[in-house]
Here is the input.
Amino acid sequence: MKSFSLGASKAPVKFRMPTEENLVPIRLDIEVDGQRYKDAFTWNPDDPDSEVVSFSKRTVKDLKLPPTFMTHIAQSIQTQLAEFRSFEGQEMHIKEKIVPIKIDLRVNNTVVRDQFLWDISNFESDPEEFARTLCKDLNIGDPEVGPAIAVAIREQLYEIAAQSISSVREARLGKKGRRGAETVTNSKAGNSALDLVKYFGSKGSVIRKRKEWYLYEPIVDILSNEEVGALDAREELNARLKRKLDEKE
Here is the structure.
C-alpha cells in the first residue's frame, strides 16, 4: 500500500496539520457519576466556539447522557482546540521526511494493527481517504473503523508537527544535543523508525516491498462478543486505576 509522497516543503511554514485539510484530532474520555462517554473525531479549528457548545448539547441529547456531561464535553474540546491554536502562527520546518505511522486499535468487534510510512512534507495528503482505501482493501465492513483509523493517523501527525515547533525553538536557542526537525519522529512509533526506513527506503515512492510483506502486512481480527466484553472490562479497570493515580498526584 502506498503512502502519500508528492513533494516537499523546504521553507518554513506556519503551523498547521501536514495534510490537505487542517483538522484537529479530538479525543474524549469522560466519566461522570459512573457513566462513561468515549469518542474520537476531527474538528475544524476555524469553526466558531459556539459550535462546541452546540455539539455538546446535541451529543448529550442524542446519547441520552446526564446534562452534566454537556459542560465536561465542551470543556474537553475547548481545551484541545486551545492547545492546537497555541501553535498557530509559529514556524515549523517540514523537510522531505518519511515517518512511521502505527495503527493499533479496536473498534467494536474489529481489531486493526498496521504500520506504514507517511510523507509529512506532503500537504495534500488525506488521512480519511487513506483510511477508506485501507478498509476497502482489508474488507472491513464496520463503518466506524475508517474514521477511527483516520483520527489515529492525524493524532500522530499532529504530535510530529508540534514536535517540529519545539525543534525550531531549540535550534534558535542553540541548545546542544537538540533534536532538529529533520530527526523528529513520533514518540508513539517508538524505536521502529530506523528499522522501517531501512526496510522501505526513504526516497521515491513509499510502498511495502513485496519481499517484506510478511513483516508489515496489516492484521485484522474479528472478536467474539465474549472477548469484547472481557477487553471492555479490562480497559474500564485500567481507566479507573489511572484516574485514581491522577487524583493522588
Observations:
- The CA atoms of residues 19 and 123 lie 4 Å apart.
- The longest helix spans residues 145-173.
- The chain is about 45% helix and 20% strand.
- Residues 1-9, 177-207 have pLDDT under 50 and may be disordered.
